[in-house]
Write a structure and sequence with these properties.
four-stranded parallel β-sheet, alpha/beta, globular, 4 helices, 110 residues
Length: 110
C-alpha cells in the first residue's frame, strides 16, 4: 500500500509489514512464529495504561477502527487490553495519534 510505505519511509529498515488474509490466518502465523509474544489491544474500554506495560521486541500492537473498534472475538483473544489515558472531556485520540504514541512506547524495549 503506497500510503503505508510513504508514512513508514524512515522506519522501513526497522519494521516488517505483513498483511494477512483474515484474523485466523494472522493467528496461525502468530502461533507458529511468535507464540510467546503478547498481543496488545489498544482500546478506550481498557483499564490498564499502556505505559505500565513492559513490551518486548516482537510484541504485537492491535488497533481497531476509530468508529467500531474490534470485534468481541478479537478483543477476547488479546492477552493485554491497554488504554491511552486522556483528560476529560476527551474520550479518545484519533487512530494515527494513538498508533504513534503506542509505537513510541513499545520501541523502548526495556
Amino acid at each position: 500500500d503506497k500510503r503505508i510505505k510513504r508514512t513508514a519511509v524512515n522506519y522501513q529498515a526497522q519494521i516488517e509489514l505483513k498483511r494477512h488474509l483474515s484474523w485466523s490466518h494472522f493467528l496461525t502465523y502468530k502461533e507458529q512464529f511468535f507464540a510467546a509474544q503478547k498481543l496488545a489491544l489498544f482500546t478506550t474500554k481498557a483499564q490498564s495504561a499502556y505505559f505500565k506495560t513492559n513490551f518486548t521486541k516482537h510484541d504485537f500492537l492491535l488497533f481497531g477502527s476509530e468508529t467500531a473498534g474490534v470485534s468481541h472475538e478479537i478483543a477476547n483473544y488479546c492477552q493485554l487490553k491497554l488504554k491511552i489515558p486522556t483528560a476529560n472531556p476527551l474520550r479518545s485520540l484519533n487512530l494515527a495519534t494513538s498508533v504513534a504514541i503506542a509505537l513510541a512506547e513499545a520501541s523502548i524495549v526495556k
